[in-house]
Every structure is written in C-alpha cells, then in structure tokens.
Amino acid sequence: MEEDLIFKKATLALGGGIKLPEGFEIPVRVSHSTSGPGAGGDSVAFSFHGMRVKKSVSYDRGEFELHERDDGSLYLTHQGEPFIDEIRFDPVVYHCPEQAFFTLDPRCSFGCAFCASPRLPAADYKGLTDEDIAKKCLDAYNEMHVVAVSLTSGVMDNDVDRTADRFISCIKAVKKVLPDIRIGIEPYAGSESQIKAFKDAGADEIKLNIQAATPEIFAKVCPDLDRENILRCLGHAVRYFGKGHVTSNIIYGMGETHEDLEKCMCQLCEIGVIPTVRSLRHNKYNGESLKKAIGEPAPVTPEEMVEVARIHKDVLSRYGMDTRTCKTMCLECGCCDLVPFRDL
Ligand code: SF4
Ligand code: SF4
Question: Could you say which residues form the signal peptide (predicted)?
C-alpha cells in the first residue's frame, strides 16, 4: 500500500466524524456499537483503495466531508482539502463488514479505565439470547456476504465462569445453524478448562487481551484483572487453538515507550500469540476514568500510528507470524487499526 494512503487511513481512523452532504441518503444500515472504539455511537464503514474504516457520520458537522459526484461516486475532503479520491460505503453485517460480531453483554463489573462498554447507557444493552444471535447470524448469512461470526462480552458480577458458559452456549447455538462458519471469540477467561471448553464448543480463534504494554500500566488501567493469568491463559490457548489462531490486544498511547510496546509484542510472539495493537481513543465514556488512572497522555497522532504499525509488522515478520492467519474479529475487519500484511 502506498505511504500516502497508509497515513490517510491513520488520519481517518484517529480523526473525527464525517459530514454527509445535505439530504444524502445513507445506502447502508447504520451500526450502533457497544464495543470497540466507536462504542456508544452510530457509525458506518467505508472502504477505499483496499482499506477500511468505521466512522461516525452526521449531517451537521465532521472533521471530514463526504461529497457525491454527478455519476454517484464519492470522495472525501479533510478540512476543506482533497483527501480520498474514491470511497464507498462498506455494508456492516452486525457491528462490522463481512462479520456478524455480537457483544453478548456490554455490562462489566471490571473497571478497565479505557473501556467504554461498561459505561454505556443501560438502554444500549440489547439482551439478546443465544437463539436470537444464532437466528440473526443465519439470516445475515443468507442475505449478505458473511465470512465469520465473532463474539465478545463484558463480565457481570465478577462472574468469569458464568460469562464463559454464555460464550459456550452461544458458540453452540451458532454452530447448530451455521456448522461451517468460522467463529472468533474475545472472552475474559480465567482457566485452562474454560479455554478447552471454548475450543470444544466450536470456536476457531480466540483473543485474550493483555491490554497494556507493561505490568505497571496494566495495574493502573486494569486494576481488577490478573495480567499473569491472562499470559497463562494465552499459553493454554495456543495449545488448544494452535499458533496463528490466538491473538492478544495491546492498547498504546497510555504512557508506554515504543521499546515497551515492542518488548510486549515479542513476549506474546514468543509464546505463539499474535499481538494486535490498538491506539487509545478518548471519548465521553472513558475520559474521567483514564484521567484518574494515567493522567492525560498526549493523543496518538497519525505519524505515531504509522510508526507503531511498522514496529508491529517488523516484530511479526521476525517471529514468522502473519495477521492473515486470523479470519475473525478485528484483524479480519481492520476498520480501527493499521493492520500489518493487510494495510501495509
Ligand atoms: S474486562 Fe475490562 S476491557 Fe473487558 S469489558 Fe470489562 S472493563 Fe472492558
Ligand atoms: S476493528 Fe474491531 S473494534 Fe473496530 S470495527 Fe472492526 S471489529 Fe469493531
């Protein structure tokens, strides 16, 4: 991918919303997310030059502006200047393009400082049953291009076992109606037996997030989670799911250095886990909790996002790992990050 486009994706991914032309009819369903950087907001996905982003849209304002030519093609300007010459809407299945990605329960009793999900209004909890989710997956599969089902969840009442059971029952319900669909899960797991049970139920990929590059930052932003146990569970996950099917997310922009980040990526690669990296996003839900936990670090810039993506790609290459072995969740979607081997 051209340098210029990589930088533009970073600018878009980190920047504000997109202003739509007056009276423009959005040709796709608008997505209301309860997880990921856009949690709590309405957004749509776009594709341009083989890349994807998910952005909030509005008729009133936006850092970027969408324009329609007479032939119906679309382009973007940024602060009044030409930015992306050709852009399209990318239909969201559930939460993201080409995947039915569900949050089983956004409510969470763990107070990770960066996480918007547990701070969302109660009305955002949709209370879908396993059967509701399985039916939605099947209907979507019959109507749209769907490559995977992905599931995430918060942990209610500190009950990791009950959350694990919910993942397992939901995986089974989806497998019943779509036996061949690839399923990726992002649970907070507590034990080896849970990891094995996820695999036995039919999950193909698992993401157990290490969240912060250093134990010190982790202790500040995830005071209720156990970093050592996450690392142990990642080791179990590689044994049950296989190298190339286990990922772990590191959020950057929380005061770590690039050396810290690289070291954490290497630590994960050494045990066969593909690190994923996500820049910290400040929003109305996490502002206060982040300030209390880590103060007010400078926002991640597009230049830094590109630099981190290069470090990420270099580390993966050194360990013979590739993001394309993962076909579910964020690596497959790619809307919020620069993904090595896909975007650069
Ligand atoms: S465990 Fe932490 S990151 Fe996960 S949903 Fe709960 S608060 Fe958010
Ligand atoms: S990259 Fe992940 S968090 Fe972002 S829209 Fe895609 S699936 Fe959601």
Answer: none
